[in-house]
């Protein structure tokens, strides 16, 4: 750590996990499962198994699978696996007057399973996606006006009005969409999703159980959100997974700057991604259905894991963090400087009412150029407030190391701490400013930060999301070139970036491109770099107007049914993992738990595992055959959740076999490719 007047060092980052390759997914829709059901009706399939691993004992009876492994496998983009369940957006009605929403929060258990009580009260309980506390609004089925009603509840629950403008949706407690008054009348407990948000199962409370399409989910932890799963897969399916992957097991890779060769001492287990087949596609479909995701392709192919005695995977997140799509690390620093400049000017205009410690010449008077005393005083205020409110004990427990780093560098009087802190943890700026505002106690010094326009990269990723859904909506009326198997079908792949640059170069003159992008030689740069990795994302970061050229070129080939309306504001989205389903394929005599160090819940206590101290902390899910752990990598607001940190504890005796079914917030193959992992 730093010493007096030295430049501060960041805490050491932990290695993040990730396979070098990731593959597609599956979703349990009627149009996808028809062939599966026909396969079951046609007969059961038996497959022999030979293995030398003495940890597994397989039955000798014919194996029963729900799919015909000998049937021809259609190419991905010509199969139903890429079909998308489109959103059901609520339709605004100008004639409707939004009702006043109360501010009192109500826990979902107050009405869970009792829609008749809400119906008798002529009211509805609204909650945000994945949340357990909501607001009750008056409503009767004859009132209609679902959009106005939902908007009122959304704003009462803190939804950004700019994000709500991009679309509001309702889902019932079973994760199914609602868009009619009769459906709302039937359920009466509903969850609000905005824009393209993906469904997150609410935990309700620890111990709560529900059945989803015959699969049992039991809430094991609320933060992180972890469920225990039963009845998702069969004994024969476990054996077949091991048979398919056993000979292909290799040392497990990680995605980390600390592992230039792809391997790290924190992960000593072995893994293998199973080949694309009817078997793996069926699991994609079932996993996506369980998670209520829009498409089978949101799930990767199954990944087989083997942990032999003493092997482990230390704490990690399943989501990716090795690539910075936005590259906006300087934005928070600029925001801090803008706030400090404004605060100083406001203080100067109110000299008599400002507390002495905040006046000019005193430590808490904002001075942007002061990288020492002012920053130390400001951060000490933040630390004191964080200690009083439990800031690092609950929501931000994953950043306790950063709290310690701030404390040590303040004590050592290190210079320019804020710059390094905000470049790595920009979200803390809001808390830092709030602590300063609380202590100065003047309404005139409450700062409302201006919103930045969305990045060209954010626009691009959201547009691909929209265009994929639009292809599904237009169906057979869409030109062949933009259908799922067409040459111009929108994807997150790097090849699609190259194609879009080429179309822009074909459709516009160099002078037009330079003029549109506001700088000379931009067309020349595009021509020279069009095949480079992430060339389009690079130009979108520097010249957001490139997005308009890309959309115009693609729409020229897609037709008028694909005209896109660019939103003013929206939540940034980029492809990443969303929720993980981990299958336990065998009983482990001792050890092999999945541990969530940040959870305050306990299923197993007094665990000691050599080489992995975190196994004694937090929630430990035991490795029990035919059971599974289902846990979210992102929150209900679809933001990466550091609390999802988890690890695979080493078996103390025997071997552990498991299977990962990683789901994404987008096509998993394409998302993996966007991160540079193949796919």
TrEMBL record:
Oxidoreductase as UniProt keyword: yes
Location of region: Disordered: 1-22
Cofactor(s) the protein requires to work: L-ascorbate
Residue ranges crossing the lipid bilayer per the database entry: 29-47
Protein name stated in the entry: Prolyl 4-hydroxylase alpha subunit domain-containing protein
Cross-referenced PANTHER family: PROLYL 4-HYDROXYLASE ALPHA SUBUNIT (PTHR10869), PROLYL 4-HYDROXYLASE ALPHA SUBUNIT DOMAIN-CONTAINING PROTEIN (PTHR10869:SF226)
GO molecular function: iron ion binding; L-ascorbic acid binding; procollagen-proline 4-dioxygenase activity
Annotated Prolyl 4-hydroxylase alpha subunit domain residues: 484-664
InterPro entries xrefs: P4HA-like, Pro_4_hyd_alph
Origin superkingdom: Eukaryota
GO cellular component: endoplasmic reticulum
Keywords: Dioxygenase, Iron, Membrane, Metal-binding, Oxidoreductase, Transmembrane, Transmembrane helix
SMART domains assigned: P4Hc
Organism: Saprolegnia parasitica (strain CBS 223.65)
